[in-house]
Design a protein that fits this description.
Largest sheet: 6 strands, parallel
Bound molecules: magnesium ion
Order of helices and strands: HEHEHEHEHEHEHEEH
Structural class: alpha/beta
Distance between the termini: 30 Å
CATH topology of the largest domain: TIM Barrel
Strand order of the largest sheet: 1-2-3-4-5-6
Mean pLDDT: 96
Oligomer: single chain
CATH architecture of the largest domain: Alpha-Beta Barrel
Helix content: 40-55%
Length: 201
């Protein structure tokens, strides 16, 4: 869930989410870089009470020292993640060399496609740090199967809704998991030309 607008209200929202989903479901939060370093540290400590296991972009992804600071001081069960804005291998290398994240994120639609995604995965293997894909689960379900460091694929309902507008064959999650359609060629996607035409710019 997104946080970052108002720290106090965000804690109330996270508390409500935890109450709704129970204790046996992982709860991830994403601040999209909205907090200062001190705010992020305070929020990390406050969210421990609700067993938040993932704190994405607690500070700006450009603040590698700040990410490292939060990573080092966050509760032990809370992973710090970033990387969704990475466009090339140097971006990921700098982030990993800085020790800025517990889990690196990469997005094949931004980081030079599958080639860039696999480069990020190789860097993850070398450090070693797990990899999580950002958005576009219809693409990452396939390439994720080829990346040893892959830990999970981000799955947002609004993104999937968009994927289904121009494509048939978008994978359906089953029990929290996505699997490629092995009876289909390539990515298993078929372009719905008439629908895609409506999205043309
Ligand atoms: Mg994010």
């Amino acid at each position: 869930m997104k946080i970052g607008r108002d720290a106090k209200i965000d804690r109330q929202r996270v508390a409500a989410a935890r109450k709704a989903i129970g204790e046996d479901v992982d709860l991830f939060v994403d601040a999209n870089g909205a907090y200062s370093r001190k705010q992020a540290l305070a929020q990390a400590r406050a969210l421990e009470e609700f067993n938040v296991s993932w704190f994405e972009e607690p500070v700006s992804s450009d603040d590698l020292e700040g990410l490292r600071l939060v990573r080092d001081r966050a509760p032990t069960g809370m992973d710090i993640a970033a990387g969704e804005y990475g466009y090339d291998i140097d971006y990921f290398r700098r982030m990993l060399d800085a020790g800025a994240v517990d889990v690196l994120q990469a997005d094949a639609t931004r980081c030079c496609g599958f080639t860039g995604f696999l480069q990020a995965a190789t860097l993850c293997d070398a450090h070693p740090v797990p990899l999580s894909s950002h958005c576009a689960p219809a693409l990452h379900v396939h390439i994720g199967c080829a990346a040893a460091a892959m830990r999970h694929a981000e799955y947002f309902h609004d993104h999937v809704r968009i994927e289904r507008m121009p494509f048939d064959g978008v994978a359906e999650p089953v029990a929290g998991g996505l699997r490629p359609a092995l009876d289909q060629p390539g990515l298993g996607l078929t372009l719905k030309r008439a629908n895609a035409q409506k999205l043309a710019i």
